[in-house]
UniProtKB/TrEMBL annotation:
SMART domains xrefs: REC
InterPro entries to which the protein is assigned, alphabetical: Bact_response_regulator, CheY-like_superfamily, Sig_transdc_resp-reg_receiver
Record key words, sorted: Phosphoprotein
Domain Response regulatory intervals: 7-124
UniProt xrefs under PANTHER family: RESPONSE REGULATORY DOMAIN-CONTAINING PROTEIN, STRESS RESPONSE REGULATOR PROTEIN 1
GO BP term, pick one: phosphorelay signal transduction system
Alphabetical list of PROSITE patterns matching this protein: RESPONSE_REGULATORY
Protein name: Response regulator receiver protein
Phosphoprotein recorded as keyword: yes
Pfam families (UniProt xref): Response_reg
Source species, domain of life: Bacteria
4-aspartylphosphate modifications at: D58
Length: 124
């Protein structure tokens, strides 16, 4: 991955994760634009008309799973780079992600500072 990351979309039902990620990411890159959605349906609607550099997508959400979210993105022909967010590195989830061309990997929640730095420095 060799592109600038300036605008990141989070789709995760956990408000606390949003607060932690926002604080840590802006500490590393203050000019980063971060957009957070707790509701996957609102996120899908927003994604139809807006651009961004990376989607961080929670696998386990009550309204719609991350996998269902990816299926809708494919149906709507929205091609975007995605990193899946999970509280564990389940081998079944990793295997399942291989079915989705847009999934570029997994990040374990909560995101550690080192992981955020690596993610944000990928444009170097």
């Amino acid at each position: 991955m060799d592109r600038a990351i300036n605008k990141i979309i989070f789709v995760d039902d956990d408000k606390i994760q949003h607060m932690i990620n926002k604080k840590n990411m802006l500490r590393i890159k203050p000019d980063l634009e971060l957009i957070f959605f707790q509701n996957p349906f609102s996120a899908l609607e927003w994604l139809e008309t807006n651009d961004f550099d990376l989607l961080l997508l929670d696998i386990n959400m009550p309204e719609m799973s991350g996998w269902e979210f990816l299926d809708v993105l494919e149906e709507k022909k929205i091609q975007i780079p995605v990193k899946m967010l999970s509280s564990s590195m389940d081998p079944d989830d990793i295997a399942k992600s291989n079915a989705y061309q847009m999934v570029e990997g997994f990040l374990v929640k909560p995101l550690q500072i080192e992981v955020i730095e690596e993610l944000l420095n990928c444009q170097k």
